[in-house]
Amino acid sequence: MDEQWRVGIGYDIHRLVPNRALILAGIELASDVGLSGHSDGDVVLHAVTDALLGAAAQPDIGELFPDTDPAYEGIASAELLVRALKRVRDAGYGPCNVDVIVHAERPKLSPYKASMASSIAEILGLPVTAVSVKAKTAEGLGSIGAGEAMACTASVLIVKQ
Ligand code: MG
After folding, report:
1. How far is the CA of 130 from the centre of ligand 1 (A)?
2. Which residue of 61, 70, 85, 149 is surrounded by the most CB atoms within 10 Å?
């Protein structure tokens, strides 16, 4: 790879279930439901991880950290993002900025957007001004609108180091 700049996109969706902590972007939110998953179910960090890996044309999160591997059961998704970051750095690139859309009907995410952005920035070693977190409801439509799932879309720009 010899491009100065490369961009990646990531997407993920997880089912909402009772009796699970709701972890988004590495922080725990007050909620009576949480995201199911082999790891901590952090749909935001999974989408960011895939966007980062995709920017450097690395294998995707499912290939690198298969959910059939007991080593990743209950693992903090922040740890997966740190490992992905190392791969991208080894490929000679570093993250520049991150843009995220969380698709969720509830809980209301606006009180958490700033802390979610800080958390992503901290994991990636970026200034908080380089990370944007937006939240969209699904206007009651589909599985997200029914509160059965949350999804996340992310974009990451990387720059040659
Ligand atoms: Mg996932």
Report:
1. 23
2. 61
